[in-house]
Amino acid sequence: MSNTNKITGAQALIRALEHEQVDTVFGLPGGCILPAYDPLLESSIRHVLVRHEQGAGHMAEGYAHVTGRPGVAMVTSGPAATNLVTPLMDAYMDSIPMVGITGQVGTAAIGSDAFQECDTVGITRSCTKHNELVMTADDLPLAVRQAFHIATTGRPGPVLIDVPKDVLQNEMTWHWPSDDEVADSLPGYRPTSKGHPRMIKEAARLILDAERPVIYAGGGMLKARAAEVLRELAELTGIQVVTTLMARGVFPDDHPLCLGMPGMHGTIAATTAMQKSDLLIALGARFDDRITGRVNGFAPDAKIIHVDIDPAEQGKVRRPDVPIVGDCRLVTEELVAAVRDLLAGGTTQADISAWKSRVSGWQEIFPLTYDDAEAGAALKPQYCLEKLRDAAPEGTIVASGVGQHQMWASLHWKFNEPYTWVNSGGLGTMGFAIPAAIGAKVGRPDKTVWAVDGDGCFQMTAQELVTATVERIPVKIALLNNSYLGMVRQWQEMFYDERYSEVYLSTETPDYVKWAESMGCVAIRVESPEEVEPAIEKANSINDRSVVVEFRTDSNEKVFPMVPAGASNDDVIVHPSQQEHRHHLT
């Protein structure tokens, strides 16, 4: 580098990432991004070379899930950028902080259908919180600062920077923008973090008046680092808590006030408590259709306190009685203080003991259940998960794909600490588990990371196990192989008269053990219940390479409870063995 203080755009890009305390970038080089890969050789940043750009994006997400810091994915233009679209959309739906950096054809060639050109900003407009095509090298440091600021503040989300090749090659004078410069450059971006004091007081009053209250905790509570204050609110008021799929672990599953996951495949107690409540305290939750079932049949008698940092969520699905826009942790702290003030001033809380014992009754009558396998019968996936859970080292992180195995994992695992559950909620991306587990392991190398995957998902992104081996990022994969697209099969069995259209994969092909071994993993096949525990024990004892345990599971097994699509939560289908007790839900 000459003494004129001039550096290339590529050097500026990497230096900017270093200034943002980035320690890892997941990526794959190619023509237009190539100049940015040269200064990486001198950088302190670790680069993880993936086998498919979608893997880079999901790894960045997994990293962000467990660290709270934005994950970074860097890929080239054209097909590489379009391969990043799925992870960007996934991160957008689940509010995951992530920064995508894509190469672009030179500025003079933009719009000419040049080799590997696509309108990346146009394509990613609806799946990013913000995106930008950077047209001069001088603009790069500010673009990077803006990207990290936007990705991590307010409602977190993915941001994309599209950088033409000549912008990376041209020289610029280094300058690192101050916080004020960043703020001034984004005049329309001012997220609200403190709740409205009058609304907080109103909410506190409703909380103490309610006779059938439920705390409805969503993924926003994890994003806000609000687990401790959630516990404080629940214990102060004695109100029971449901944790959505995205919020698993924000409130300990072993806490007496925990009802588990509500919704389409939620526990009966969680879903029914919401249905029958007179007050829903929604904290960082968005009234997703998987939770509500048919909206006009959802929690008909409940008043709604809705706390969310995104004003667009207020009234989007359900009109709140008390809308509070703000950071979930700050607002919940304010709520706790307001409730304490009212109690100190002589206000008494309504008696909720009858309600709580009613809810506990549902917990007792409708526990999670499945048919035990008779000797020699097919292996039950729930049994495999329970054994995985019981043998898991303290603080194990669980990543999951999408489908039946995801629901069983969320239902049967016990999440007692936050940031230990990594899954694709809003977009429901098959193939998420393996790359996300790798990203999580990079973010928390001290933790055991298990990915729970299905055979359908595994076949979409298994090649990233090559990355795990070559980059020495050991993860463990529990592959629940039922030779079907299980969740689709379940729907066809229940709602399409068992007309199984295009859901059977294959029992013979691929050979998962050989495939896993060819990718450098230790592979174990499990076909009977007595093999389950020894296989898990062996997998947990191997920590210098990745392990794939293939459980050959019963393809007839279905996820219960289940609310059929478009039905009201009142029409939940319970496990056949509990059918006779359904009258307790009316």
Quick take:
With 586 residues, this protein is α/β, with parallel strands linked by helices. Helix 18 (404-412) links the parallel strand 15 and strand 16 (421-422).
List the helices and strands and how they pair.
Layout: E1 6-8, H1 9-19, E2 24-28, H2 34-37, E3 46-49, H3 53-67, E4 71-75, H4 79-83, H5 85-93, E5 98-104, H6 120-124, E6 130-133, H7 140-152, E7 158-164, H8 165-169, E8 171-173, H9 179-185, H10 197-209, E9 213-217, H11 220-223, H12 227-237, E10 241-243, E11 258-260, H13 268-276, E12 279-283, H14 289-292, E13 303-308, E14 322-325, H15 328-344, H16 353-365, H17 381-391, E15 397-400, H18 404-412, E16 421-422, H19 433-443, E17 449-454, H20 455-461, H21 464-470, E18 476-481, H22 486-495, H23 512-518, E19 522-526, H24 529-541, E20 547-552
Parallel strand pairs: 2-3, 2-4, 4-5, 5-7, 6-7, 9-10, 9-12, 10-11, 12-13, 13-14, 15-16, 15-17, 17-18, 18-20, 19-20
Antiparallel strand pairs: 1-8
Describe the structure.
The protein has 3 domains: 6-185, Thiamin diphosphate (ThDP)-binding fold, Pyr/PP domains (Rossmann fold), CATH 3.40.50; 197-365, TPP-binding domain (Rossmann fold), CATH 3.40.50.1220; 381-552, Thiamin diphosphate (ThDP)-binding fold, Pyr/PP domains (Rossmann fold), CATH 3.40.50. The chain contains 24 helices and 20 strands. Helix 2 (34-37) links the parallel strand 2 and strand 3 (46-49). Helix 3 (53-67) packs parallel to helix 5 (85-93). The termini are far apart.
Major sheet strand order: 3-2-4-5-7-6
| Rg calculated over all Cα atoms | 25 Å
The number of domains: 3
| CATH level-3 fold name of the largest domain | Rossmann fold
Q: How many alpha or pi helices?
A: 24
Percent helix among the residues? 25-40%
Cα distance spanning the termini: 75 Å
Major beta-sheet overview: 6 strands, parallel
Proportion in β-strands: 15-25%
Overall pLDDT metric = 96
Low-pLDDT stretches are: none
- What is the CATH top level name of the largest domain? Alpha Beta
